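User: Batch of two.

Assistant: Item 1 of 2:
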Amino acid sequence: MSETEIKPLKWEPVPGIGYTVVRRPDGGMHYTFTDVSRPTLLHWREFALNHLYDSDRLTRNLYDLRQIKSIPKEAIQIAVEANSDPAARNIRLAVLVSSEAVKAALEEIIALSAPGGAEIGIFMQEDKAEAWLNRPLITMI
């Protein structure tokens, strides 16, 4: 696959799963979560780890959690597991939140993750998240 070729998404909507994902124009992924139920978390973990498995370049992802009011402990544990995968180092991840509770949970995920995980920024405004994501990826190396 060439540097400019966009990798296939390999995702289809599943009834009862509380997130959607689309490719960003830069080749990264844009996730939108409507819930963080156990079925959603398990589906997301499998999807995310499969994409990490064949991660071959620096990537920008956006997670929109503005519809989420709180993050359960199980979600924190699953996110820490995914962010501790060595391939996560290839990801710059902006997370949109609308509450201090969700922001605090994300800060806990960052603190508990193994060194070298995704570069994570937490934002309440989409334009600020996009500006942060759009910084040159070379700064991640």
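Item 2 of 2:
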Amino acid sequence: MPHWLVITDLDDLKGKLLGVITVLLAVTFLGDVVTWDGSESILWLGLATGLVLLALGFLLSRSIKPHQSEEPSRSTSEKGQE
């Protein structure tokens, strides 16, 4: 499986779901912009969508753990051979 598709714990799943929700909100808002009839309601929709995206971005940034080194650690027997 590709690395970006592997889910190892609940935080990984939460991050992926928040990313999907963010994209869905952005696409929905852009769809409303395309069909906009010129009324001022688009401003309130944009502000509401922006606030939700800001909150989701905050949650996503808090749930991201620092990446650990991709290299496997060397065993003690390998260290002793040097």
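The mean pLDDT is 77.
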